[in-house]
Design goal:
The two termini are 24 Å apart. This protein is mainly alpha-helical and 144 residues long. The radius of gyration is 15 Å and the shape is globular. It has a two-stranded antiparallel sheet. 51% of the residues lie in helices and 8% in strands. It has helices at 2-8, 15-26, 47-64, 85-91, 95-110, 116-129; strands at 68-73, 76-81. The longest helix has 18 residues, at 47-64. α1 crosses α4 (85-91), α1 packs across α5 and α2 (15-26) crosses α5. InterPro entries: ABC-3C_MC2. It holds the Pfam family MC2.
């Protein structure tokens, strides 16, 4: 997640966008991007639902170490690269980490500025091809 937030910096993104972007970074070929990092197994769209909880737990841990910043305002809760985030990315070496960061940069470029409605269209349409539907986000309009 820190790789992704570093590629998106200085943008702040909510949990729903992070879940979409996480999938896009791992299975980038599904979105006409670079070769996917992971093998495109059947029903991989099911990872979307299972990874959401893992992403939330990871964000909590990363926030405790200032790898990410959590912002709360009238628009909801958003996440951004924290002051220790670049140091963490620098410590994680290896080919996989380099390739992951390349995919994250692609996600930031291709999807980072896309509005919520268009993201839902992209992931909703393609999600059925991956064997699972993506859940639409809800805007309740309530403040924290």
């Amino acid at each position: 997640m820190v790789h992704l937030l570093m590629a998106l910096y200085p943008r702040k993104v909510d949990l729903q966008r992070l879940v979409y972007f996480d999938y896009a970074a791992i299975y980038s070929a599904d979105l006409n991007g670079p070769e996917s990092l992971h093998t495109p197994v059947p029903l991989r769209g099911g990872e979307y639902a299972s990874r959401r909880e893992l992403i939330e737990a990871g964000l909590y841990l990363m926030a405790q170490r200032s790898f990410i910043d959590v912002k709360a305002d009238n628009g909801g809760i958003s996440f951004q690269l924290g002051e220790n985030g670049p140091a963490l990315v620098g410590l994680i070496g290896g080919e996989y980490s380099r390739e992951l960061y390349k995919r994250c940069k692609w996600v930031a470029s291709a999807l980072g500025d896309m509005d919520e409605k268009n993201l839902e269209k992209v992931f909703g349409m393609r999600g059925t091809l991956w064997g699972a539907e993506f859940l639409p986000t809800m805007n309740t309009g309530t403040a924290l």
